[in-house]
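Action item from last meeting closed. Structure (429 res):
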């Protein structure tokens, strides 16, 4: 049995090396690569200094093999912009006022998260300056970032952020224009999600009704399922936004309004919209006792709701106990994957099945295009079966009339955009 290797193995940008020490000085062995590179003295007894020399050796060998641009060797690293300094310049630009296009706090948080992964990758490959970032090491970063825990969309956003920062620094002349390169980034499709059925939705309400400690969750589920609101919009909803006299809920976007900076609210589309008050929402909200001021949904002692704790409560006490009752297909999203945002899919799908015009549903959800609205539409199995019963392929007799003639029509036009002769009418469910 061969002895266990004790010398560290370092994966650089182009090749893999084994570091070992001889007579107090570090050496690099590159003979384990597909291209045999031999052994080289790094000439330094310090580990960190040896690693820096190794990254330079890696680039030098790549240039000699025609795998890297020779200009990279001629640049003086001391004159380059460090990764941290460049990212700080980028983030500082994002702090400009919202009216001038400044980024939101949630966007900043996401950017810092993605940047953290690139920093970790850069430390393992010796990338210290922005002029070292190129198409090849971004492709390698995408491979490094592609783990079972990171979905393709996450990898797309991580790589895209680095390219966005580099392009920004080039425009601001912080990095030479010669560092610019084209990167063909194709946004992957969103992961499939589950959509509650009517039976599942009723089961959620029944579960919340039986447990007095879940009364607030029942109210939240009712409002989300009958308005299509995002959970973040629900948390920010104020009593002043609810107009019972005119049967409408105002979902406000105060983006860029200077006099409300301290408590400004914003929507994902950066636009305000209105959603009619469904009778079930009215029955749920009107009986609430106490002064109808401030936010509608409050946490303990009248404070703000903690999303993480509410989500955990919903999953642990509602979704998981009901999951065995609604099993799914192996490898496919099921009821067990349902969350608050699933109510938005449920709302859109029920509206479509009830014959609400697509443009109306689009306005209620606050989508910028009907294509986005269609992503939230899930074909109900029974609706699909009923419509199939109408199909008469043999030409003998006529197909039966489905029980849901309004079915999957959306104002005379299917969600795929095809015209139908006799659009049906219905109400939102």
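Sequence:
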């Amino acid at each position: 049995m061969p002895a266990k290797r004790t010398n560290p193995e370092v994966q650089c940008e182009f090749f893999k090396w084994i570091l070992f020490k001889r007579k107090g000085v570090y050496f690099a062995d590159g003979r384990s690569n597909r291209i045999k590179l031999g052994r080289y003295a790094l000439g330094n007894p310090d580990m960190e200094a040896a690693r820096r020399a190794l990254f330079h050796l890696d680039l030098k060998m790549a240039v000699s093999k025609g795998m890297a641009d020779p200009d990279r060797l001629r640049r003086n690293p001391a004159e380059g912009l460090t990764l941290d300094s460049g990212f700080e310049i980028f983030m500082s630009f994002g702090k400009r006022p919202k009216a001038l296009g400044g980024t939101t706090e949630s966007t900043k948080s996401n950017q810092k998260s993605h940047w953290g992964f690139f920093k970790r990758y850069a430390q393992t490959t010796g990338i210290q300056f922005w002029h070292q970032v190129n198409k090849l090491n971004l492709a390698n970063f995408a491979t490094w970032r592609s783990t079972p825990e990171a979905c393709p969309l996450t990898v797309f956003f991580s790589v895209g952020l680095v390219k966005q920062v580099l392009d920004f620094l080039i425009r601001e002349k912080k990095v030479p224009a010669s560092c610019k390169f084209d990167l063909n980034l194709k946004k992957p499709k969103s992961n499939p999600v589950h959509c509650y059925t009517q039976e599942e939705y009723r089961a959620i309400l029944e579960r919340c009704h039986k447990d007095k400690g879940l009364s607030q969750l029942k109210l939240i589920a009712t409002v989300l399922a009958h308005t299509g609101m995002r959970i973040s919009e629900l948390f920010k909803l104020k009593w002043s936004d609810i107009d019972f006299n005119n049967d409408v809920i105002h979902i406000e976007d105060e983006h860029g309004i200077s006099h409300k900076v301290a408590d400004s609210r914003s929507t994902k589309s950066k636009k305000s919209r209105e959603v009619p008050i469904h009778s079930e929402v009215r029955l749920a909200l009107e009986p609430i006792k106490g002064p109808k001021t401030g936010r509608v949904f409050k946490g303990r002692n009248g404070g703000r709701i903690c999303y993480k704790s509410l989500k955990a409560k919903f999953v642990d006490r509602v979704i998981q106990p009901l999951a065995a009752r609604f099993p799914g297909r192996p490898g496919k999203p099921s009821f067990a994957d349902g969350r608050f945002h699933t109510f938005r899919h449920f709302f859109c799908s029920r509206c479509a099945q009830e014959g609400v015009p697509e443009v109306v549903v689009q306005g209620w959800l606050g989508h910028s295009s009907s294509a986005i609205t269609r992503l939230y539409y899930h074909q109900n199995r029974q609706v699909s079966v009923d419509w199939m019963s109408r199909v008469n392929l043999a030409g003998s007799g006529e197909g039966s009339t489905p029980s849901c003639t309004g079915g999957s029509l959306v104002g005379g036009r299917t969600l795929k955009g095809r015209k139908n002769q006799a659009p049906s009418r219905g109400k939102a469910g």
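Note appended to the action item: Confidence is low (pLDDT under 50) at residues 405-429.
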